[in-house]
Amino acid sequence: MLAAATVAARTRTTKHLIYYYFGSKEGLFQAVLERAYSCIRAAERGLNLDQLAPVAAIQALVEFTFDYEEACTDFLRLVTIENIHFGKHIESSPAIQGLNVTVIDTIRDIVQRGQREGVFRREVDAIDLHLLMTSFCIHPPNTVGDA
């Protein structure tokens, strides 16, 4: 992480204000993560996936996720940094946990609708599907073929 003095200089504030509002650089990073996850989850809610057929809903969510993560490289950087820290900021943030459960619940609902309609297999797990979607958006498979 950047030194508090560097963060203060880049944000045209002081170290004292950063520590006053956020308690520490860790607190500042957690607040930034909370805001980033709040933004993506709000955008996901705007997709109205419950109005789409299950296959179309999953496709729309995958396309949205890919486009969002491609356009919002800062979000990807934050997630990567958090992964390097083994998710400790997410683990200690009830706000992020509450935000992230919404996308899992949405996927679970879509999958269950698809299972009832016979278009999705019974073995599909919402958390695994979310991880798979996100990982393909971050590290897309090679679609060009072997060199």
Topology, please?
Elements (H helix, E strand, L loop, with lengths): L3 H7 L4 H8 L2 H21 L8 H18 L1 H12 L3 H4 L2 H23 L9 H13 L9
Characterise the protein shown here.
It is elongated and about 60 Å long. The chain has 8 helices and no strands. 72% of the residues lie in helices and 0% in strands. The longest helix is centred in the last third of the chain and has 23 residues. Helix 2 packs across helix 3. It has one domain.
* Number of helical segments with 4 or more residues: 8
Task: Supply the helix-strand structural class.
Answer: mainly alpha
- The overall pLDDT average reads 87
Order of helices and strands: HHHHHHHH
Radius of gyration: 18 Å
Largest sheet: none
Strand content: under 5%
Helix content: over 70%
Overall shape: it is: elongated
* Low-pLDDT sequence parts: none
Distance between the ends? 37 Å
User: Into how many domains do the coordinates divide?
Assistant: 1
Strand elements, count: 0
Features:
147 residues; mainly alpha; 72% helix
Outline of this structure?
This protein is mainly alpha-helical. Helices cover 72% and strands 0% of the residues.
